[in-house]
Amino acid sequence: MAKRRVAVVMGGYSSEFEISLQSGSVVCDSLDADKYDIFPVHILKNGWFHLAPDGTKNPINKSDFSFSSGEEIIIPDVVFNIIHGTPGEDGYLQAYLSLIGIPQTSTGFYQAALSFNKRDCLTVLKGFGVKCANSYYVNKGYSYQIEEIVRSVGLPCFVKPNRGGSSFGITKAYTIEEIEPAIKKAFQEDSEIIIETALQGIEVSVGVYRNNNEIVVLPVTEIVSENDYFDYEAKYLGQSEEITPARISKDDTERVQAEAKKIYQILNMSGVTRTDFIIEDGEPYVIETNTNPGLSVESIVPKQVRATGMTLGDFFDILIENALERDIN
Question: Is the peptide bond before 156 cis (omega within 30 degrees of 0)?
Answer without folding.
Answer: yes
